[in-house]
Amino acid sequence: MTAAIVGLGLIGGSFALDLKATSFYSKITGVDINHENIDVALRLGLIDKAQDLGSAVMNSQLIIIATPVDAALNVLSQIMTMVSDQIILDVGSTKVPIVNAVSGNPKRGRFVATHPIWGTEYKGPAAALQGKLRNHVTVICNSEESDPDALAFAEQMYDSIGMKRIYMGAVEHDLHAAYVSHISHVTSFALALSVLEKEKETNTIFQLAGAGFESTVRLAKSNPDMWTPILQQNRTNILDVLNEQINQLKIFKKLLESEEFGKIYILIQKANEIKKIFDK
Amino acid sequence: MTAAIVGLGLIGGSFALDLKATSFYSKITGVDINHENIDVALRLGLIDKAQDLGSAVMNSQLIIIATPVDAALNVLSQIMTMVSDQIILDVGSTKVPIVNAVSGNPKRGRFVATHPIWGTEYKGPAAALQGKLRNHVTVICNSEESDPDALAFAEQMYDSIGMKRIYMGAVEHDLHAAYVSHISHVTSFALALSVLEKEKETNTIFQLAGAGFESTVRLAKSNPDMWTPILQQNRTNILDVLNEQINQLKIFKKLLESEEFGKIYILIQKANEIKKIFDK
User: Which chain A residues have a beta carbon less than 8 Å from that of B252?
Assistant: First the structure.
């Protein structure tokens, strides 16, 4: 069986490696408008060959769209005009725009909207890692809009690479994703900009920065080609949580200004409740 | 040689373990007003015995103050009335208040103000870890105010546990610490509060939260007994950077509202420059 991966970045490359390891797929075909990505993916053995989108769709049973989420809309609508009974998956971080884009399309049933929750702050095929998707969650959205056989195929693929499936409506997904992923990136970008703005002595930052700083600012290294369209597509939800975040910081600011440290103590204790989410 | 550790938490406990491993110290004495901490520290073998502050000071060559930074001011002023030629170190995250508190004290020279840059989000002696301080930086502040033999002793101690020493004035230290450590905690507390406020379905957070969220929110688990006094003591610097952070978030908010995604792209690219600090 042949799988085509459209978009040979960190995520597409990591799927290529994991699919190869399952032995379900004898061939992985890569599609990318960036020739350097193709060269690297071939050289690293992530893919067996490169093709244009039309040939890849024609010759594959499974097509995985792993481009930035803006390009994914275009790629999917092109694929929809070519596809017969193949299965198409996307793996993007926003789900409402893509399910809306194909709603009512006669080939809608061949598409399964998914969001595997994994990534690193690095980009490109050279950043791809094998076996890292295992045990992470993948969200399958609006599964009732996919043909039963396409859905079953996608489920089997995720099972084969060891991901845990959960199901959710696209609207609900995008709301939660704003809270537990997208806002973390915005705060991390803002933190990096604050520090770079004020700390001209980068050597001092380097020497003094502990693991705490590194972990809160790590996401600020994330790829603008990937993240700008996510912020664009999930703009309304992200604005909601961004307002809440600014509001919480203003509460800290006010309490620091008025030196109400007893109240700050209580806020920190409340924030500590986030433990119950991760330590269970 | 005997070392006394005052404050048997994560940091005090980790110093106890590392000092023991050097074989310079045949005995580690623990001091803590919390009896449970003492019991745990004895049971886990972090300390050889527990004493009250007076006896511990009298019977030790080195005294390490590892309490929260508010308690450290009191503990140090008490020790100053008891000490003859012992060496006293503190390991707190703020340095201006403690060096000011002992400025002009006849025993000032016996004290060395330090800040080893290491920690985790966990607390108490059971969270202590051996060998983790190694290769991290410790900042020694206002070293010219310490007696040469006391300074040399402290330097040797840090060398023996494998920490790298850097030197800085206390004022400069507290400014930089606000940027590269304290603000990360405030943004992480605020992020946890935002998410807990909006996401009542904690199970959804747990399932959807990727490594990105976990790393930005990890510090929100930090101990309020430790962090409230740090925010209190470094209030002015933290307010400066907090204002800058709110400002940066408002820029993102405005650009999202006006849908200026080209400008957001440029901001993310600028934030990416934080790479040069960590990836060098």
Answer: 186, 189-190, 242
Nearest CA in chain B to A200: B176
Task: Report all structural domains of chain A as residue ranges with CATH numbers, in order of start.
Answer: 2-168 (3.40.50.720), 173-278 (1.10.3660.10)
CB-CB under 8 Å, B220 with A219 = no
Is 60 exceeded by the pLDDT of residue B140?
A: yes
A166 vs B contacts (CB less than 8 Å): 207
Residue-wise pLDDT tens digits, A144-188: 999 999 999 999 999 999 999 999 999 999 999 998 889 999 999
| pLDDT confidence of residue A214 | 81
Q: pLDDT-derived band of residue B279, with 50, 70 and 90 as boundaries?
A: low
Mutation target vs A (from B122, B171, B187, B235; most A CBs, 10 A cutoff): B187
Nearest CA in chain B to A205: B180
Which of B115, B109, B108 shows the shortest CA–CA distance to B151? Answer: B109
Residues, chain A: 280
Q: What digits encode the pLDDT tens for the residues A121-149? A: 889 999 999 999 999 999 999 999 999 99
When pLDDT is averaged across residues A109-116 and rounded to a whole number, the result is 98
Of the candidates B164, B170, B163, B165, the one whose C-alpha atom is nearest the C-alpha of residue B145 is B170
Please provide the DSSP assignment of chain B as one string.
Answer: -EEEEES-SHHHHHHHHHHHHHSS-SEEEEE-S-HHHHHHHHHTTS-SEE--HHHHHHT-SEEEE-S-HHHHHHHHHHHHHH-SS-EEEE--S--HHHHHHHTT-TTGGGEEEEEE----S--SGGG--SS-STT-EEEEESGGGS-HHHHHHHHHHHHHTTPEEEEE-HHHHHHHHIIIIIHHHHHHHHHHHHHHHH---HHHHHHH--HHHHHHHGGGGS-HHHHHHHHHHTHHHHHHHHHHHHHHHHHHHHHHHTT-HHHHHHHHHHHGGGHHHH--
Q: Which ipTM value was assigned to this complex?
A: 0.91
Contact B239, A257 (CB under 8 A): yes
Contacts of A217 in chain B (CB under 8 A): 184, 274
Check CB contact under 8 Å for A216 and B215: yes
A55 to A50, A72, A83, B73, B194: CA distances (angstroms): 10, 18, 11, 72, 47
Backbone angles phi, psi at A90, to 5 degrees: -115, 160
Tens of pLDDT, residues B79-120:
999 999 999 999 999 999 999 999 999 999 999 999 999 988
Minimum-distance CB partner of A192 among B219, B243, B274: B274
For residue A278, pLDDT over 80 is answered with: no
State pTM to two decimals: 0.90
pLDDT, tens only, B224-254: 999 999 999 999 999 999 999 999 999 999 9
B88 contacts B112 by C-beta, under 8 angstroms: yes
